[in-house]
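Standup notes, protein team

Yesterday: finished cleaning the Ceratopteris richardii set.
Today: Auxin-responsive protein structure.
Blockers: none.

Input for Auxin-responsive protein:
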Amino acid sequence: MYVKVNMDGMTVGGKVNLNAHRSYEGFLLAMEDMFQPSNTGGQGTSQGVPGRDSHANDGKRFRLLNGLDYVLTYEDQDGDWMLVGDVPWSMFVTMVRRLRITRGSEATGLVPKPDR
C-alpha cells in the first residue's frame, strides 16, 4: 500500500510502500533516509540517487525517532491527524491515508490515543 509523504518546508513529497516494512523501526529509518539533505543540497531519497552519500551529513541528520527535530504524523480514515506509533503497526497500515513530517514544535497538540 503506497501513501503520500510530505515534509514541512519541502515543496516536493514522495510515496512510501508500507508493505515493504514490517515494523515502525524500519519504516522510520526509511523516512529519515528519504528526506535527508543530499550532498548537492537537494532532497534525499532512499532510492539510491547517484552522488548521494547517506553518511556525508551524519552530523546534521534530522531524527524522527527522538521527536525533537521532526515528528511523523498520519491522517487516519476519519481525517484525524495522529502521531505515528500510537497504535500497533498492523493497525497503522490499515488506518493511514497520508503522512506528514512536521516540525516537532508544531506537533505539540498531537498526543497518542489513550489505550482502550
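Follow-up from PR in the comments: The chain has two helices and five strands.
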